[in-house]
Amino acid sequence: MSDFSHRFSPTGTPDRTHAAALQLVRAPATDPVERIERLVDVAREVLRMDMGYVCDTRAGLQAYKVVTGDGDSFDARPGQARPLEGTYCQAMLLGQIGNVLRDTSREPVVSELSITEHGRIGSYIGVPIVLSDGQLFGTFCCLSHAPTPALTERDVELMQLLAGLVADQIEYERLRAAAHANELLDGAVGALIASLEVRDGYTERHSQSVVDLAVAIGTGLLREDELDDLRLIAVLHDIGKLGVPDSVLQKPGPLNEDEWEVMRRHPAVGADLIARMRPIAHLAPAIRAEHERWDGQGYPSGLAGEEIPVAARIVLIADAYHAMTSDRPYRRAMSREAACAELVRHSGTQFWPVGVTSALRALHAEMAQRAPSV
Predict the structure, then answer these.
(1) Domains and CATH numbers, the chain
(2) Which of 5, 2, 13 is nearest to 158 (CA)?
(3) For tag attachment on the chain, is the N or C end more exposed, with fewer CB atoms within 10 Å?
């Protein structure tokens, strides 16, 4: 902020107004909204305007997020929204007016607007708020009832500087909110997994192995964001077993046909559960399709080939491989080599051929690393 006082004081030394503005910025603030309010107050103090505000214009509205100063006299309050059409902000964003209007009565574009008379607007200065990804968020503006002949292009530079700091705070608040949502989501997902693991000890051993192999298969086939979704789908692919009775889920021997009918419902149950969790609701179709087969003979919907989400095709391969190489009460585990042979044998029928090729590449690399050196 030392650069601020040098650039916007005529002598390079802050005058009383600049000093007050600097104190507003430097004073402790508990959250991003309070920091934005401080930045808006800096503009008002330095420019000697009656009101300052930040608006979100993305929905075709002028939605006031922050208002400082004499907002009531301009009929502007935080949380209020009015149509963007016919406002100074729209005219500025469209280039119909400049960033500075020293005397609105001399500006034909706005002098006859109802908002000019209704709000008794005498002068205006405003700049866009642009986020780091280039997205227009809204506007950062100041108004006065009287004309303000002293406004200059240097004042626009000040507003642009402060608008950049406002954009930083908006993005910080988004990240903080997203992190909080992720913490809540992680807690909810963790609780679901823990509940299933308490009921079925096999799930606890099974899930991480499926995740590791699924990611190994998906690497090179999926984008990074798709790999992130794949990890969650692999973690949650059996979550629908929460709806399977203990008599079926914990049965020590093979299931009969009626019991299999109950077990086959778990992908749909899991998908319904995930669909209710808004941040990960988009994963529900892959959760539902995890037991669909490439040849269309799977369940619950009989999807085939490209109809099956890619993540579901991958998790099916990882799931099947780990199941084959795990001891169960009613059978011994296959060797890794035998399980790989089964993947090859059922490639193009049960399994996605491209996924099988990728799985074999990953598994053979892992087995080579484990092989004792000579």
Answers:
(1) 2-165 (3.30.450.40), 195-370 (1.10.3210.10)
(2) 5
(3) C
